Amino acid sequence: MTETLHIVGGGMAGSEAAWVAARAGLDVVIHEMRPRVATFAHQTGKLAEMVCSNSFRSDDSEQNAVGLLHWEMRAAGSLTMEAADTHRLPAGGALAVDREAFSQFVNDRLRGLPNVTVVDEEIAALPGEGHWIFATGPLTSEALGRAIIAETGAERLAFFDAIAPIVYAESIDMSVAWAQSRYDKGETEDERRAYLNCPMDKAQYEAFIDALLAAEKTEFHDGETASYFDGCLPIEVMAERGRETLRHGPMKPVGLTNAHKPDEKAHAVVQLRRDNALGTLYNIVGFQTKMKYGAQAEVFRMIPGLESASFARLGGIHRNTFMNSPTLLDAEMRLKSKPNIRFAGQVTGVEGYVESAAMGLLAGRLAVAEITGRSLPPVPPTTAVGALVSHITGGAEAKTFQPMNVNFGLFPPVEGLKAGRRGRRDRYKAYTDRAKADWQGWLAAGV
């Protein structure tokens, strides 16, 4: 057991950690409760199944923090990024993937390794010996959640996460909708036409907001309380914050020209992004929702171009959980009370596919070093990976700890650069140049 790394959870973080450890020559056992124990959001028992969006967000490694994180993971030989690049879909400046092909790729690569074993079982306790990484994600089982509470004496924190609906492409009226990425972003014609756009005039937008606010919503169970993660708010919650909120958020009309009526400026625009390589499925961007299924179909068919929409999946909402990592984990992501256990992924309080996988990558590298008797220098906080792990292991305020995407606000400032919006491009380029150099140095030190 001392030479075997056990990983609990086969999502993004667990799969990435397993890949790192297996490539380093360790025997790896992945304990994945699916499909034996189902979750609200998952449909299969495959590793690295994507359950919400199919987007890894911006791929710009010079001006965007998540794009920088993509770069760092590619430089480290990430399986997540290899799968994403192999099954990439046109998405303007974003990195979107065919979710089924992506998961199958990761699943096949890991299950095909002779030193990786996948066991379909639920782990409901925290082991006292052996080398373990718990990467159970935001849908950590109730039994394991109780074990974490019993061990740490701290209540889990929680937030509600919502899923956007998916529409069959053949049911979208292309005499109304048109293909265009915002500001025509993208290096190829496919990328510049990666999104379908459905325009609304002011009267249609106001009627849509009225219907959205009046629609029947999912009720939570008694005693089930949590906050929403701001990066994944249900659209009706955004609408409740003000009638113009959606028009300045996922329905903003900027950077688009209606191909059917180029002289007319839309009051609001609903975008759909391709969800698979065949182009048969599109998800409605930013339209996470807690409306009941019947209400969803009725309200979303008010969108011009979607009057006859057929849905492959309607939206939904589920409770996600995460730990108060600043109080529970040490600088190497180990549980302070049981240092044979590391935690990684969304359960630690990072938010997003790439952020979760990055914490899996780091946890895997730290576990390999520990098992093989080597030491790694701390990850520079000037890198995207380092900024994230520094945040969750002590940089964040424990009393107000909430899930966090990677962003430049987590990075140490670069001295001598102008603050404010005018100096932003130079400042971001300085952040990313520094991060790339420091990350390459850290990787070289760990060889």
List keywords for this structure.
Elongation Factor Tu (Ef-tu), domain 3; alpha/beta; 18% strand; 2 domains; 13 helices; six-stranded mixed beta sheet; 447 residues; FAD/NAD(P)-binding domain; six-stranded antiparallel beta sheet
Write a structural description:
By secondary structure, this protein is of the alpha/beta class. It folds into 2 domains: 4-156 and 323-445, 3-Layer(bba) Sandwich (FAD/NAD(P)-binding domain), CATH 3.50.50.60; 163-319, Elongation Factor Tu (Ef-tu), domain 3 (Beta Barrel). The protein is 32% helix and 18% strand. The chain has 13 helices and 18 strands. The chain has helices at 12-23, 65-75, 79-86, 99-111, 142-152, 189-192, 202-214, 235-240, 293-300, 325-328, 353-371, 384-395, 424-445; strands at 4-8, 27-32, 55-58, 88-89, 94-97, 116-120, 131-134, 157-163, 166-168, 178-179, 195-200, 227-228, 268-274, 281-284, 311-313, 316-322, 334-335, 338-343. A 6-stranded mixed β-sheet has the order 6-2-1-7-18-17, covered by helices on one side. Helix 1 links the parallel strand 1 (4-8) and strand 2 (27-32). Helix 1 packs parallel to helix 11 (353-371), helix 2 (65-75) runs parallel beside helix 11 and helix 3 crosses helix 4 (99-111). The two termini are 24 Å apart.
